[in-house]
Amino acid sequence: MSSSSHTSSSAEAAITFRGLTFEWPDGSVALDGLSGTFGPGRTALIGDNGTGKSTLLKLVAGLLQPSSGTIVTTGEVGYLPQTLTLDAGASIAELLGIDSTLTALRAIEAGDVAPHHFDAVGDDWDVEARALEALARLELGWGEGAGPGDASHRTGVGAGAAATPSATVLDRTVGTLSGGEAMLVAIAGLRLRNLPITLLDEPTNNLDRAGRARVGALVDDWPGALVVVSHDLELLERVDATAELHAGRLTTFGGAYSAWRENLEREQSAAAQAARSAEQALKAEKRQRIEAETKLARRARTARQAQLSGGIPRILAGGLANRAQVSAGALRSGHDSRVDSAQAAVDAADARVREVQHIRLDLPDPAVPRARRIAELRGSDGTVVHLQGPERVALVGANGVGKTTLLLDLLNSRTDGRSANGGSTNGSSERRADGSADGRADGSSEGRTDGRADDRSDARAVDRADAQAVGRTDGPTAGAPLDPPRASGVLATDRVGYLSQRLDDLDPEASALEEVRRAAPGVAPARIRDQLARLLLRGAAVDRPIASLSGGERFRVALARLLLADPPVQLLVLDEPTNNLDLSSVEQLVEALAAYRGALLVVSHDDAFLDRLAPDTTFELTRDGRLVRLDREAPIETS
């Protein structure tokens, strides 16, 4: 039996759930008897992929019904999913969630005094002004007379970033927004509604640095209770409490993520020490039992010798033997009991110590000499950047500048006959990715391509990584130049692996083993299983259909297919690889990439990930298509 209800109680907890169980139609259990609370402030909900964080949010929001258990909230709940699926023809007012109120308000202003209009407006007579103020806070450049889709908005020319937009902006369509803008507007709409409870699921996933900062500013003074699932370290520092979903239990710490992390490390250090002490105590008890057995055996041997020598009457010897056996039995029982107790203490102590799983791969050498040119990126200003040898290059930039388009252009360069070895164009400058003078070009190509993009014509359609945030792709915005300057790329090798944001090229019906064998047909299945185990894919997970795996497991299958390809890829291209990965999975990704000895080109908004990855060079792709080399210590994105 399950239930979900709202109450006006002024109790401390904004959300309370007891014995919450949720089972998917295929019988897999996402949550099993979970109990806990979320307080009235801002709470970060963290946990490994597959622990049920998103499922819990959907249950609280009423989008899923629990198999059993109860959920009680103190009022209406607003919810932002990881992926917004919106009609491109919907208005910004609809995205903000104020369209019905705004329609009623405008009808009243036009002279329609029907009671249902007043019911729709309620107390929100200033909703239009508050909505425009909320949009102004986003600093999207929609100044007076400007709006989404205007060239001045796209280039940052014209209206001031903080200027209040005109009321006509509310009637614009969602199709004129970039994916990142749509996500920001949706979040602003939830805040505008002043609901008692709001749930945000990975709100900064597809946002650039400026967008993440704007979400952080909204969270700082969020009205009502807020529960946010995120792996954005900066956002996790803006909360009042951190709740972790781990091993089927929810535990809450009264502080931001960094404080929670420090506390966890202290707890784990103490738990590890307790486990060592318990193990020592167990060894001591076992030694004492062995010593006791030795003494008992010595006494028994002495008694037998005395009896054989005739020094003790037979009747007396029998009595002594019986008493010795009883005494020995009691002694053994006591030692066994103490050993069992010590073993139980060890088991309990070990259970409190978390297993830290590390990825250690033994990958084949892709044979990428330092003098070998792998690819080149060409800026709109004629600058040519060579990716040479096993270099690691990060590509950053604001949402909508065309980073994904550039990657797809690079990946498809072989299919349309372009070459990275035709020399530089007139008037262009050339440099290696590390900033040094260009070395010798080696234009040979060999092998095959893994994960290449399907069609170059898709490049512009898939433009902007943030398009995923609204569940659509968005090409050039209405009012923007039809053919703006853009960067391009050319490959000098066919052995390329591409990991897209969507992971949509995995066969959902195939197993992890089958997917990797397609990329490495000459590698023995036992070898693949061993390497998958090193990627933390073990046991039944290797043979289950990919559709049944968690997001983190699917990501590791896609990564394994690239890293274990035969022949090994010489260039690995990753597009926002940390999206939807939990924090421990990000660490594991860094470990996996550390074992790869080829060239790497990665697009990411995740500064913490890039810091751990330590690329040789970072380039920013600007809105006008230029490639600007950055110092990793400097800010890496523009709004």
Automatic annotation (TrEMBL):
Q: What SMART domains does UniProt report for this protein, alphabetically?
A: AAA (SM00382)
State any single GO MF term. ATP binding
The ABC transporter domain covers 15-272
By its UniProt entry, which Pfam families does this protein fall under?
ABC_tran
Q: Which UniProt keywords apply?
A: ATP-binding, Coiled coil, Nucleotide-binding, Repeat
- The question of whether Repeat is a record keyword is answered with yes
Coiled-coil boundaries: 261-295
Composition-biased stretches, type Basic and acidic residues, lie in 429-466
Q: Which domain of life is it from?
A: Bacteria
Q: Where do the record's region annotations for Disordered lie?
A: 414-489
Q: Does the keyword Nucleotidyltransferase apply?
A: no
What PANTHER family has UniProt attached to this entry? ATP-BINDING TRANSPORT PROTEIN-RELATED (PTHR19211), BLL7188 PROTEIN (PTHR19211:SF6)
What name is this protein filed under? ATP-binding cassette domain-containing protein
